[in-house]
Amino acid sequence: MKLFVLFSTILVAVVLSQTTYLNDPLVTVRADGVPEKPVTVEHSRLLSFLLQLFPARFALKEARDLMHTAERAIALTFGLQSVENQLPKAGEPCPSVTIIYARGTYEIGNVGVLVGPGFFEAVKLATSATNSSVSVAVQGVEYAAIFPEYVKGGDRAGSQKMYSYPPSQSIQVPGARSATDFLPITRADDVSQALEVCPQTKVVMAGFSQGGQVVHNAAAQLPPATMAQVSSVVIFGDPLNGTAVAGAVPERVLVLCHESDIICQGSLFVPLSHMTYLADVGEAAEFVAKHL
Ligand SMILES: *[C@@H]1O[C@H](CO)[C@@H](O)[C@H](O)[C@H]1NC(C)=O
Ligand SMILES: *[C@@H]1O[C@H](CO)[C@@H](O)[C@H](O)[C@H]1NC(C)=O
Fold first, then answer.
1. Which residue(s) pair with 202 in the sheet?
2. H-type helices in the chain, by residue range?
3. Is 107 in the pocket of ligand 2 (CB under 6 A)?
4. Tell me, what's the pLDDT at 161?
5. pTM, whole model, 2 decimals?
6. What is the pLDDT of residue 6?
7. What's residue 30's pLDDT?
8. CA 119–ligand 1 middle distance (angstroms)
9. Nearest to 218, CA basis, from 247, 238, 240
10. Residue 43 annotated among the catalytic residues of the structure
11. Which of 56, 82, 113, 273 is the most exposed place for a label (fewest CB within 10 A)?
12. Nearest-CA neighbor of 258 among 15, 32, 5?
């Protein structure tokens, strides 16, 4: 019932804002410390739209309904796809670039809507600018993306899903504190599968927020030989900002943290500047294209 009321409220807000935000000047100046950057018209509209959906600061612990409802409204209004399953499979044509992406806490689908879809679009644009036959595949990392896992340093299963491990063994993940942190080995991992099936594909490991923790954990567990093949690593709003991505060539790692984004210091509160990394997908895409 509570959810229904919240959702209805947001739907009304969506309809109302359809008429208002389109007439607003495009977002260029931000009051919360996000640098002013040129973004596409559509991204600019989405940014001003989401500023209406989220409060200036909220507790991540209680943000599940807020995030789900707001993200559904964003997906609906902007026609965004929050699920991507294009991991290369044996017998299918290989993509030139494979992005393995981990979404943020309480984002919907397997890539969310705040940063992922805009980032993928920007990478497609940036890579096709120099070579129109470059193809880009995207795989969202399947994991729960819930608050308790963020507190523990990033969902273990999600990290495991992204990395490689020997069969029939348990492995200890970074920062493991209890027996449950030793994971049984049950699934194929995304990064290794992409490189196994398509040795020529350029793998990009990327994540937003808790997805950044997932990237860090996965990188720490991947064999050095596999990490050496990773084309680039991009993390938006990284809770582990300042910590190197293990095994990655430092020049191939881009961590984007807005100055006022306290999630980049591991905060449990989310400022508005954590929700606006869509403003940085152009820069991130240029970085990816440069390292192919
Ligand atoms: C353009 O991309 C395709 C697909 O990745 C590749 O086979 C081709 O060699 C590239 N061409 C140039 C000029 O880099
Ligand atoms: C992120 O880390 C860099 C390097 O340690 C630091 O200069 C920067 O202030 C950090 N950003 C935030 C928002 O904490």
1. 97
2. 2-20, 41-53, 64-78, 116-130, 147-151, 156-162, 190-197, 210-221, 224-229, 281-290
3. no
4. 74
5. 0.84
6. 52
7. 56
8. 22
9. 247
10. no
11. 56
12. 32
Specify whether 261 is catalytic.
yes
Q: Would you list the DSSP string of 26-69?
A: PP---TTSPPP----HHHHHHHHHHHHHS-SEEEGGG-HHHHHH
Mean pLDDT, contiguous 10-residue spans, the chain (292 residues): 50 45 45 63 90 93 96 96 94 96 96 97 94 95 89 77 48 41 49 92 97 93 91 97 95 96 95 95 96 95
pLDDT at 183: 40
Check pocket membership of 135 for ligand 2, CB cut-off 6 A: no
Distance of alpha carbon 92 from alpha carbon 287, whole angstroms: 28
Query: For position 166, what pLDDT does the model report?
Result: 37
Classified as helix, coil or strand, 266 is coil
Using CA positions, which residue lies closest to atom 6 of ligand 2? 242
Which residue among the candidates 209, 216, 232, 238 is catalytic per the annotation?
Answer: 209
Which domains, from first to last, does the chain contain? 84-290 (3.40.50.1820)
Q: Is 32 assigned a catalytic role?
A: no
